[in-house]
Amino acid sequence: EAGVVQSPRYKIIEKKQPVAFWCNPISGHNTLYWYRQNLGQGPELLIRYENEEAVDDSQLPKDRFSAERLKGVDSTLKIQPAELGDSAVYLCASSRGAENYGYTFGSGTRLTVV
Amino acid sequence: AQKITQTQPGMFVQEKEAVTLDCTYDTSDPSYGLFWYKQPSSGEMIFLIYQGSYDQQNATEGRYSLNFQKARKSANLVISASQLGDSAMYFCAMRHLDDKIIFGKGTRLHILP
């Protein structure tokens, strides 16, 4: 089966500009996650979707970050406007929800804000 | 508070030797799952092994095994017969009933030829 697909792979933008990331989860995986991974750190959850519903967005900085998962499949994460501190790797993952099944992660989008 | 602690920021191990990566966790939930992920330089997170809190036996997956000591809240990863391709970041993670997975800060493993 195809894995979790993310694009773009890399993105360099100037501060105050908008940026968007796209994720296509594994077919049949109802749960989708966006994580942010700062350099030298473990991933931190930004938002979790069950189908098209955001069930946990408590860690999402809502003043500048937004996400959507229309039709419960693909998802986009947007930052507007970007700040220097947003430079990180943004990872998308999906899960079929089984208890002993780890998430399957995509390759991530490495964002650099200059 | 739920927390994962990995105390080894980096490790150097000779090829073919066994290596143990430490992980301790803190939770008040009776039911939880423990995971290990590998992150090579390419950036992708690769699922390695899972241990459920009620599992009686330690999980094993090929050269990977998880040394689960519940009373000590410890879930160390053991890699037997290390290979050069094992060089990567390794993350310990914990999953709760609310389906949220939290990660430790990771250990960077270097396998020396």
Protein architecture, described:
- The complex is a heterodimer of chains A (114) and B (113).
- With 114 residues, chain A is mainly β.
- Chain A is 0% helix and 48% strand.
- In chain A, the strands form two sheets. In chain A, strands 2, 4, 5, 6, 9, 10 and 11 form a seven-stranded mixed β-sheet that branches. Chain A has a four-stranded antiparallel β-sheet with strand order 1-3-8-7, with no helix packed on it.
- In chain A, strand 5 and strand 6 form a beta hairpin.
- Chain A is globular and about 40 Å long.
- By secondary structure, chain B is an all-beta fold.
- Chain B has no helices and twelve strands.
- In chain B, strands 2, 5, 6, 10, 11 and 12 form a six-stranded mixed β-sheet that branches. Chain B has a four-stranded antiparallel β-sheet with strand order 3-9-8-7, with no helix packed on it. In chain B, strands 1-4 form a two-stranded antiparallel sheet.
- Chain B is globular, with a radius of gyration of 14 Å.
- The mean pLDDT of chain B is 93.
- The interface between A and B is medium-sized, with 25 and 24 residues.
Specify the helix fraction band of chain B. Answer: under 10%
Content-based structural category of chain A: mainly beta
State the assembly state of the protein chains.
heterodimer
CA radius of gyration of chain B is 14 Å
The termini of chain A sit apart by 37 Å
The SSE order of chain A reads: EEEEEEEEEEE
CA radius of gyration of chain A: 13 Å
Task: Tell me the fraction of residues in β-strands of chain B, as a range.
Answer: over 45%
User: What's the total helix number of chain A?
Assistant: 0
Task: Give the termini distance of chain B in whole angstroms.
Answer: 41 Å
Helix count of chain B equals 0
Tally the beta strands of chain B.
Answer: 12
H and E order of chain B: EEEEEEEEEEEE
Low-confidence stretches of chain A: none
Helix content of chain A: under 10%
Nearest-integer average pLDDT of chain A: 92
**Largest interface chains and counts:** A-B, 25 and 24 residues
Largest sheet of chain B: 6 strands, mixed
Strand content of chain A: over 45%
DSSP E strands of chain A, number: 11
